Amino acid sequence: SQQRAPQRAHQQQKFSKGRNLNNERTQLGKLLGILKKEDLLPTIIFAFSKKRCDILAEYIRSRDMTTAEEKGEIHMFCSRSFSRLAGTDRNLPQINRVQDLLKKGIGVHHSGLLPIVREVVEMLFCKGLVKILFSTETFAMGVNAPARSVVFHSLRKHDGQSFRTLLSGEYTQMAGRAGRRGLDKFGTVIVACWEDIPGELELKKLLTGSATRLQSKFRLTYNMILNLLRVDEMKIEDMIRRSFGEFHAQAALPSAKALLKRANKACTSLDLVEWPIDKGSFEEEEVNEYATCVNEAGEIGRYLMGKVQESHSSSALLGRGKPVLYYKSESGDVPQIALICEAKTAPQKIGALGKSRKTLTLFVLHNESMPMDEVVSKLEETNEKLSRVSQKDRDSGGGAVMYSKKAPKMYHTQVFAQHLPVTRETKGRVWSLLEAPAEDVLILLRGDMAGFDGRAVLADDMGMIGETIDFLSRTWGSFLGGGEDLLLSAKSDLRLQDIDDIQYYMKLTELVGQIRGFRCNASSRLFEQFRIVQAKLKIGQRISELRHKLSDASLHQMPEFHQRIAVLQTFGYVTAPHQLVAMKGRVGAELQSCDELLATEMIFRGLLSSLRPEEAIALMSALVFQGKEGPGDDEDLGDLPVALQDKIQDLRDLALELGEAQKLCGMELPPEDYVRGALSMGLVWVTYEWALGKEFKEICEGTEVMEGTIVRTIIRLEECCREFKDAARVMGNPSLLKLMEPA
């Protein structure tokens, strides 16, 4: 302990490295002067670190804020309270330090203090004898002790993973301590901007932000699973279903059942629809395969077109005169050949993220299987649109000049451009002009149309329209005839660089090859048949989604449950396939105060068998201590017996083995993170010395771990020992039971 004493002495210097201590001490002194001058005492100063609270209190140790009468009252109260402690515990370094601060009206409150010390500080603060209290946020959560003012040392805290700004609810909870009912008209809240000054938006969000959303903290554990598997009355699915995390999903089940009923009824109605048959039609099975292939290609095509638009060189392929396959899944139409007339970039909303997207004006040559009644309807709709275009608009001087080799020609682009979509019939073929997002392009084809001018098409130039129809007819014929040269290259043409994108494009070209190979492309009833099949596929998918939603498989934590079951089966805790709890599982069900998987394996592999009671207790402390391992912890272990050091290394190896096994079973937690979460050697030496019977005061002087943390860990360790004794009785292990008795 003599060699360890300097560790506590250097605690403040280590924590404050990189800070200007004199500057912070000066700023704190000025703040206290303002608080006293403005009569804002008593004050709570919230600092989000136990060590920071202690250091700030030490900065003002030289200040005295109490009268002689208050000092006497504080002394008498502390003497009566601490008299309950036995022997040298009354002279623990923490008690002496806190008592000296309290006599000066300065208090500290955090989880590192002994429970009795925290209680004394709270009672003296409520009596008004503590003028300045340095506290972590826990003081605002469970203690009803308001002050005249509240000071935030910082607006950022560490949440166990990273530093972040306080949530609005956290700020409100702490700031709400300012102002004492019946004593103060209002409370004062001060944000001490000693480091970075918070921005206006950050402060506005902090002060006026919405309340923190409730989130379920229900988590599956091996202990819970093992105990539920032993009970016939309740299944794990029932437990998950009753958790708050599944509340909204369970509340929506009645409507999901109604939707499923309607979907089944719609599916029955579709089955009654007569399948269109004539000499040029095909069976439903082949059209169903065709539709499935088209849908899969459509999903990949939408993804790749998004990638194409992100690349400047690739997006140039979406220019005028480029042939494409057009497929809009929502319309229920089959893929059709089209030509790009115009391409314009869609305006992005202010503040929108991501790349800009293109909107295309497409000349679509419709499949000849389009139903006649639909053709007539589209033509009549277009004629009605164009009939509203006045002769004045057609003859106005505005327009776009199109130059050719012979002579310039004037076109008025308003004929079609402002009335899209339009559908016309030329040369016995039905075609449409429409606007569509670039994502509706199934795939880009090779071979631009020479001499094409989109403005002429938009101006209803019959010559250009006729040439476009001829070009698209030839291209479609070549496509169905197996023209591999129509497909672009992933690297040289589309300039795709990512290996995944290239593989997606290869899959797309494979699917497109299958699509053009279907015989039903020549069907005279393809449109009708395709829509019937698409409707059945969509309603079938919807029914599958609703059934999944209503089943246990939709529960959010079911995948994790199956992963944990796989781990338990791997190590023999439950038997497959009936999930019966084995002896290991019965032992694991008894352990709750620590990682049950690691503790059970520790017992069955005999890591405690050759140790003395004090060594076993020290090793078990690694399971329950929740503090962080410091940089010198490995050196501290060198003072321990060699047998204990060997067992510590065996325990670390065992934890890593379990972490790797969990990863193999699909759990996302990295093995190293599992080891850090399940084990902490920071209190092994302390526990070993305590088990040997050394004075608590002497132990505290040799470690940086705070007294309150040590006591809390010892209490948890006591509970862990009782659980190990119960486990020994369950498995019939007298040696383990004998080892735990003196512990």
Distinctive features:
single chain; 743 residues; alpha/beta; six-stranded antiparallel beta sheet; five-stranded parallel beta sheet; 51% helix; 10% strand; elongated; disordered N terminus
Short recap of the structure:
The protein is of the alpha/beta class.
Overall description:
- The longest helix is centred in the middle third of the chain and has 27 residues, at 284-310.
- The strands form 5 sheets. This protein has a 6-stranded antiparallel sheet with strand order 13-14-10-9-8-15. The protein has a 5-stranded parallel sheet with strand order 2-3-1-4-7.
- The protein has 743 residues and is an alpha/beta fold.
- It is elongated.
- It contains 34 helices and 17 strands.
- A hairpin with a 4-residue loop joins strand 5 and strand 6 (163-165).
Biggest sheet features: 6 strands, antiparallel
Task: Give the overall silhouette.
Answer: elongated
Number of helices: 34
Question: What is the helix fraction of residues, given as a range?
Answer: 40-55%
Summed over residues and divided by their number, the pLDDT gives a mean of 82
Structural class: alpha/beta
CA radius of gyration: 38 Å
- The total count of strands amounts to 17
Distance between the termini: 23 Å
Quaternary form: single chain
Low-confidence stretches: 1-18, 350-354, 397-407
Strand order of the largest sheet: 13-14-10-9-8-15
Strand content: 5-15%
